[in-house]
Amino acid sequence: MPGDVIPLREATRAWFQISLQTFGGPAGQIAVMQHKLVDERRWIGQRRFLHALNYCMLLPGPEAQQLAIYTGWLLNGIRGGLIAGGLFVLPGMLALLALSGIYVGYGETDFVTALFAGVAPAVIAIVVQAVQRVGKRALHHPALVGLAVASFAALTFFAVPFPAVVFGAGLLGWLLSLRIPALRESRAHDTADGTEPLISDEALHHELPTVRRSGTVLLIGLVTWFTPVVAFAALAGSTGTPVFVDQGLFFSGAAVVTFGGAYAVLSYVAQQAVGVYHWLAPGEMIRGLALAETTPGPLIMVVQFVAFVGAYRNPGSLDPWLAAVLASLLVTWVTFVPCFLFVLLGAPYVERLRSNRGLTAALTGITAAVVGVIANLAVFFALHNLFDRTRTADAGPVHLDVPVLASWDPVAFAITAVALGVMFGRGWSPLRTLGLCAAIGVGLFVIGAL
């Protein structure tokens, strides 16, 4: 088993540089790593890079961060994986912690309200674009289109729990593949060779998938994952702050069902955080997503905002600011530690997993369902930001939130139309679109139109 194939200090410097450029969601983050590691430094070949990415696509959680962990492991072993994955998250975590504090402290001021009046409609357009992009890649067969529509209907009309939709889609994907062999073939990524690497595949770090190694990694990973949850449970008992336990357990569970990227799981998080735990008001989820879009790192970092605001409003006997910071750190921990566990545990088995066509078929089904899940998120955001009031319509098994049409917000509709126009008509990036819409919101406030 080789040691460091790149000096650890040099690799750490490279990962720090990458961590400051990881804007634009997973596609942009993966593109940054591709440019730095494959094209510029030539530490890893194109095929090996895509092979690692294909494995990370099988896992719950943010695939870009998991790709950083996996690639760090290839270059410098477990130390490299820990450094790469940790640095990938750190800048965004610090930035969003500061932005969450600003939101809680100044979110009710007229200026900040105007700012969010601009960015919230932009997020609707960003999620709609995500539906289009994921759908274009994932729905390459009529059966998969049907699965996406069924997933959307299950969430939107019948309030089926998100985990049930994910696992049901995986099972249906596998069953459909028995009759449709095309569903057992991975179509996720291009297979171009790219630039010849300076380091051969044989020189990269590798380990044999032994039972002893797997057991050790699993034990350490589970203890590392849940020890803070237990510690916070004890703190909650002494301070009367049950939000720590609720958030620790909820987001630990969410970490293992986040197939399909951040937009998919945000539908589940929004449903629970707003409708069940009441940590946020309906419109606040989209504000948190807007903040997360402006920071580097995985978009799923928005859960930190949810935890911060929820704990600030339910601090028990603790100071609200202390409770908010502690909760945001806890939720960040339980969201991202599993990524290290999944990658470091499964990396030695990657070749075996990638040759498993049944697993590929299940992933194909889940990816198709993700299109419906993201569409459900777009509907949720539109309902609660384009209209001031909604109502619930129940008819037997159907439970549907519908808008009160008289409460429509013409400014929100207009800004959403602008955001859709620049993203789909002119190809603008999400970050640039957010900037434009924020400026529109502030401009309307200055002229007295808000």
From TrEMBL:
Keywords: Cell membrane, Membrane, Transmembrane, Transmembrane helix. GO terms for cellular component: plasma membrane. The keyword Transmembrane helix applies. One of its GO terms (molecular function) is chromate transmembrane transporter activity. NCBIfam families: 2A51. Its main location: membrane. The chain crosses the membrane at residues 82-105, 111-131, 143-176, 217-237, 249-270, 321-347, 359-384, 404-424, 431-449. The lineage of its organism: Bacteria, Bacillati, Actinomycetota, Actinomycetes, Propionibacteriales. It comes from Nocardioides albidus. Coiled coil: none annotated. It is a multi-pass membrane protein. InterPro entries: Chr_Tranpt_l_chain (IPR014047), Chromate_transpt (IPR003370). This is Chromate efflux transporter. The keyword Membrane applies. It is found in: Cell membrane. Belongs to the chromate ion transporter (CHR) (TC 2.A.51) family.
